[in-house]
Amino acid sequence: MTDYKNFKIETDADGIALVTWDMPGKSMNVLTAEVMDELDAIIDATVADAAVKGVVFTSGKSSFSGGADLSMIKSMFTLQAEEKAKDPAQAVEKLFALTGRMSGLYRKLETCGKPWVSAINGTCMGGAFELSLACHGRVASNAKSVKIALPEVKVGIFPGAGGTQRVPRLANAQDALQMMTTGSSLTGARAKAMGLVHQVVAPDELIPAAKQMIKDGLKPIAPWDEKGFKAPGGGIWTPASAQLWPAAPAILRRETAGNYPGALAILKCVYEGLQVPFDTALKIEQRYFTHILQTTEAFSMIRSLFISMQELGKGARRPAGVPKTEFKKVGIVGAGFMGASIGYVTAAAGIPVVLIDRDQEAADKGKSVCEGLTSGSVAKGRMSKEEGERLLSLITPTADYAALSDADLVIEAVFEDRDVKKAVAEKIEAVLPEGAIFASNTSTLPITGLAKNTKRPAQFIGIHFFSPVEKMMLTEVILGKETGDKALATALDYVAAIRKTPIVVNDTRGFYVNRCVFRYIGEAYDMLVEGVPAAMIENAAKMAGMPVGPLSLNDEVAVDLSYKIFKAAIADLGPQSVDPRHMELVTKMVEDGRLGRKAGKGFYDYPPKPQKKKLWPGLKALYPQQKPEEVDVKVLKERLLVTIALEAARTVEEGIVTDPREADVGSILGFGFAPYTGGTLSYIDGMGVATFVDLCEKLAAKYGDHFKPTPLLLDMAAKGETFYGRFDPYAKREAA
Ligand code: NAD
């Protein structure tokens, strides 16, 4: 058989060809045009070779495959845009043909006449699982690393290579919908229980078991190609389906508020596809897929949640030429709420940590927090007992600053108080080695100001974590005026080591994420003052696609934090910097002890578990209430998203955020900004800057000057520009 670039083929004495997918120079297999071409040729070759009785398909990497190469889809978008400008109808036809490529190839495999078995040795996602589904047999390893998923919905699309048709013909429709509309991962055992894989075996039995299926006479015919096939549960026209289908769109709407066309398309594909023969069903899927690929949601989500996130994670903003830091020791000073969890994530990355606090007892308390987090992870099966023990052995609690004398990086997370930070900075400086980097986790104090506490401001930087540190994927890296390249590179190396996604922003009050978050909360204060019922504010936020309502979020970050921020702003910038109605509301909450979740009461009341939190009824008495039917929910949704997006635009205008990818990714990972929009700036670009400006003007006329479009937006609207066009991150790199 010919040589292939991405596959190895070995045929054994029983005539079973073992096709091993192992792309050179890549840590993970992905489906590219070249891989599809080769696979096509392999199908032809194995069919033509009379010596081959069947094929076992597996991967030579530790994972099976991550699925389609989404950068291929990105270039498809670019091509589409160019072709649409020339001839829209033909562009769509071409897209339709392109989307059918993978699906057609898998159908060819399925009907090739020889049995194929997929041997799933590790993570198997998206298009790769769809490939496995087209094989006649599927065996998965029982290793912990095996995760099976069709996660396309998370980037705005759906399984468009037969997934929406094969899954509900193997599993019951409810499980199939659940799996595909949430994109959640299955273990091998769960996949087997659902009927998606035939066997789950120990890793070293994987290939023998797959071969055995062929030796045992596996039929090279998919169940749906057999006469009389019926989908599990009997298909659409059954009493059980009559229960499921009327409810399914309502459940989806409850979960997604109708914001995700990709998710709705899954329902349509399954419902319509199950009523027709398989090949027609694939055509239905192909049509919906072509449609979904043309949505703004798919474009923006793929760009932000896949491509940009990956680029930022791989150090898109890292200065070239600075050698990579391999961390031998990281010091954390302040072993409190944040410091302890920063210590935990650092040790989880295999880096030794010194955890310093005012005295040994306080430092030990920090370590005990790490112990709690570790035992939680062990209990949930996320790490083994031994891994947990190793993690904890890397954390040394102490009150002795001398332990920092060989640290590569120190992160300060003491009280948010300038004097305390100054005193601590002096102690750190006294012992910190020459080339080491000093970072602060401050959330409100400008980095340039804090840098004055050190003798080496070029080596001082902000590394701003979000709570809960072990769950939040984002880290904001803040450059002070004098921060140098080495500090930036080290900070980014550190963020990469702890496997979080960084955004790099210039210094400003609130940096990027908190500036946006407090606009969101501020708009909710406005609404409360106007007498909008609190439940409508919270629900409108969720309908707009936000994961947490603004009042709930304020309770989480603490209402007294808002109060402190207002006080600091008034002290530094004058009384006009804070809306007096906001100050009055927050002061009242604080005076009543309604400080948020930590106090058991805030905008919500927090009764003992298992009771759920409830909006505080007293909110109704604070302001004369509008009648719910007189409040326009659409406008509430717009106000909440627009105020955040406008703030993001201001940060770009002020030179705080310099790369649109960072604004978008930061907004989704930092505070869950309606992911279907692709993030704050994609939200603006998606509707068009001119439309956004009109919307801002309309809102400003009714709800206040804070909605007025900024000069940058007016200029961009006049010129017909987009953020990704005017601040093109790739042009910058090419020019450099
Ligand atoms: P915290 O009060 O829980 O912890 C502060 C710790 O610093 C305490 O353990 C305290 O004993 C220790 N400390 C105080 N003075 C010290 C000194 N002189 N020497 C050594 N240790 C000292 O506070 P936190 O919420 O963990 O916040 C710490 C920092 O992180 C602040 O700058 C805050 O702005 C920032 N931050 C907090 C959050 C959050 O959600 N809480 C989020 C991002 C950033």
Automatic annotation (TrEMBL):
Q: What is the name listed in the Swiss-Prot or TrEMBL entry for this protein?
A: 3-hydroxyacyl-CoA dehydrogenase/enoyl-CoA hydratase/3-hydroxybutyryl-CoA epimerase
Family from the record: In the central section; belongs to the 3-hydroxyacyl-CoA dehydrogenase family.
| Record flagged with keyword Oxidoreductase | yes
UniProt cross-references to Gene3D superfamilies, sorted A to Z = 1.10.1040.50, 2-enoyl-CoA Hydratase, Chain A, domain 1, NAD(P)-binding Rossmann-like Domain
Q: Which UniProt keywords apply?
A: Fatty acid metabolism, Isomerase, Lipid degradation, Lipid metabolism, Lyase, Multifunctional enzyme, NAD, Oxidoreductase
What PANTHER family is this protein classified in?
TRIFUNCTIONAL ENZYME SUBUNIT ALPHA (PTHR43612), TRIFUNCTIONAL ENZYME SUBUNIT ALPHA, MITOCHONDRIAL (PTHR43612:SF3)
SUPFAM superfamilies xref list: 6-phosphogluconate dehydrogenase C-terminal domain-like, ClpP/crotonase, NAD(P)-binding Rossmann-fold domains
Give all residue intervals belonging to the 3-hydroxyacyl-CoA dehydrogenase C-terminal domain: 510-606
Transmembrane helix: present as a keyword of the record? no
Identify one Pfam family in the record: 3HCDH_N
Annotated TM spans: none
Q: What Enzyme Commission number(s) does the record list for this chain?
A: 1.1.1.35, 4.2.1.17, 5.1.2.3
Q: In which pathway does it act?
A: Lipid metabolism; fatty acid beta-oxidation
